[in-house]
Specification:
Helices cover 53% and strands 22% of the residues. It has 566 residues and is of the alpha+beta class. Strand 1 and strand 2 form a beta hairpin. The protein is rod-shaped and about 215 Å long.
Length: 566
């Protein structure tokens, strides 16, 4: 009998090891392989054969040149030859692998020398772990970091990340350059270290509210003042900063410097106010021009009356009285005989009667002319006083009678209307008093009446007519100035209120533009309608019973009175 116990034990151990190896090669997701000295596959795991669409037998005897692209196969072959030459392993090498059919992957490779029982190197073996997803994630993370870093380094906006205590975690280069020429380390600092107390307190309150509610702040315009007194404006957006679990761990934001925009807006506002003021002055000039026209017309009448009086005085029969007195002086010694016996003397009584009648007539004519002159002088004084009264109330809101104001506008244009034979029709409805700026309203009305007069005069028709109509609808007053003049072409209706637009040879295009602006300032509107050339035009001014600003002021006054009473 021969004892084979040890042989059986060796075979059992070998079978166990072989079982372990087979289990590893069968179930491992990693690429496990054994190669000879020519880098030909001796054994490989199931994962390797499955990757290349075959069984293990289909892989055995092949090399990486049969499975991968030339570039990767050559590098792998060189590594394995170096391992066999030196006996040194390669551990954890990241490799990019491209198969012959173009599939790309990344692996974490470890290769070691394969030795026989005598310790001689007979090939290599290795394990490749597929890290394609991890590599892609790392690459994506690297790209994101690069993009973030590029953004932080090059963005002109201030970008910052803060923790729950509003301490700065990261910030853009522009943010750090804003303070101490970019040399300041802002990490760990808060707005209280950089800005004045007022701005820092508001910013901190905003960020704590974002952390508490999770609601972002989008596009908030903020005035910022640094500790060294520099003032600027920014458009700020802040959002909650969350971790991977979705928990809010702080805030992040972007502040865009809009100082130049704010300055431009202020300059635009100033320019707009200047334009409005210039247009208002132009409108006042329209009123003043109308006043001067009327004053000039009245002065013409005064001048004519003065000429008539002068002519009457020059042709007066008063000289006959002087000659009669000289005749009496000549016959002072025989005056009675002269009056009774002399033929010339007997004509004296009849002459005196005719002279008295003539002088009475001359006196009446002169008195009429003087009365006319006095009336015209009073008219001039009335026009000037009216203009002065409107100039004094500029900018003051008060209750006014619209019909009375329309009559004033007509009186200011009375001379021009009469001179051009324009008939005025009044269609005044029942209107309540409205609270508005009397000066601006009279400016608009004088302009509209004056323009209507020009429109009628230019059409050269015999029945020139301007109608003033007022209505009261839904809490708003409508004043329409209607003429039967030259009308307005369709293409001009959209431009007629534009600054500088005019169709009159001597016009400057300020009147209607300033009137439209004034109507807007009064809380109303000015519109125009015309059927076309030769069909006249209708300008409609619509105003609220009370100006919105006046309503607000009245509400505030009422609240103040209520508080005082309480």
């Amino acid at each position: 009998m021969i004892d084979t116990t040890s042989c059986q034990q060796v075979e059992a151990a070998l079978g166990c090891e072989q079982h372990f190896l087979e289990a590893l090669l069968e179930h491992s997701e990693d690429f496990i392989y054994f190669k000879d000295r020519q880098s030909r596959f001796l054994r490989c795991s199931k994962a390797v054969s499955q990757r290349f669409g075959g069984s293990e037998d289909a892989i055995l005897g092949k090399t990486d040149f049969d499975l991968y692209a030339e570039a990767h196969a050559q590098v792998a072959f060189n590594d394995e030859q170096e391992i066999m030459r030196t006996g040194r392993s390669i551990i954890g090498k990241v490799e990019r692998e491209i198969t012959r059919d173009g599939r790309e992957s990344w692996s974490l490779t470890s290769k070691m020398p394969l030795r026989n029982q005598a310790g001689e190197i007979i090939g290599t073996f290795g394990i490749n772990k597929d890290i394609t997803e991890r590599h892609q994630a790392e690459a994506a993370l690297a790209r994101e970091r690069h993009l973030l870093e590029t953004l932080l380094q090059n963005s002109a906006d201030c970008i910052y990340f803060k923790d729950r205590e509003s301490r700065i975690l990261r910030c853009s280069k522009s943010q750090s350059e804003r303070f101490a020429d970019g040399t300041a380390d802002l990490i760990g600092k808060t707005d209280f270290d950089l800005f004045t107390e007022d701005h820092a307190r508001l910013a901190f309150a905003d960020e704590q509210e974002i952390i508490r509610t999770g609601c972002p702040i989008i596009g908030k315009a903020e005035k910022e003042v640094t500790k060294d007194g520099r003032e600027s404006w920014s458009l700020t957006t802040k959002m909650p900063l969350r971790n991977e679990a979705g928990e809010i761990i702080g805030t992040f934001g972007i502040s865009k410097d809009i100082t130049a925009i704010k300055q431009a807006e202020a300059e635009l506002e100033r320019t707009h106010k200047e334009l409005v003021q210039a247009s208002r002055m132009a409108g006042m000039a329209e009123v003043a021009t109308s006043v001067l026209h009327n004053v000039g017309n009245v002065l013409n009448s005064i001048n004519i009356a003065a000429s008539l009086v002068d002519d009457r005085v020059k042709k007066s029969r008063v000289a006959d009285v002087r000659r009669l007195a000289q005749l009496f002086d000549q016959h002072a010694d025989d005056l009675a005989a002269f009056l009774t016996n002399d033929p010339k003397g007997r004509m004296v009584p009849d002459f005196l009667r005719q002279l008295a009648e003539k002088l009475d007539s001359e006196q009446a004519e002169v008195r009429d002319e003087i009365k006319s002159m006095r009336s015209n002088v009073e008219h001039v004084k009335e026009i000037i006083a009216m203009q002065q009264s409107y100039a004094r109330v500029a900018g003051v809101f008060e209750d006014i009678d619209v019909s009375a104001l329309l009559e004033d506008a007509l009186r200011m244009n009375a001379g021009a209307l009469a001179r051009h034979d324009v008939v005025v029709a009044r269609e005044f409805g029942t209107l309540p008093p409205i609270c508005t700026d009397k000066h601006k309203l009279i400016q608009i009305l004088v302009n509209l009446v004056s323009n209507a007069k020009y429109a009628c005069d230019e059409c050269e028709r015999g029945d020139k007519r301007v109608t003033l109509r007022t209505t009261n609808e839904e809490g708003r007053v409508r004043i329409s100035v209607i003429d039967n003049g030259v009308g307005i072409p369709q293409e001009n209706l959209m431009r007629i209120f534009n600054h500088g637009f005019t169709t009159r040879k001597d016009g400057h295009g300020f009147g209607l533009h300033s009137s439209a602006l004034a109507a807007t300032e009064l809380g109303g509107s000015l519109t125009v309608h015309s059927e076309g050339p030769g069909c006249g035009a209708t300008f409609t001014l619509e105003l609220p019973h009370r100006h919105p600003a006046e309503n607000q002021s009245a509400i505030q006054e009422e609240l103040q009175r209520s508080q005082i009473a309480a």
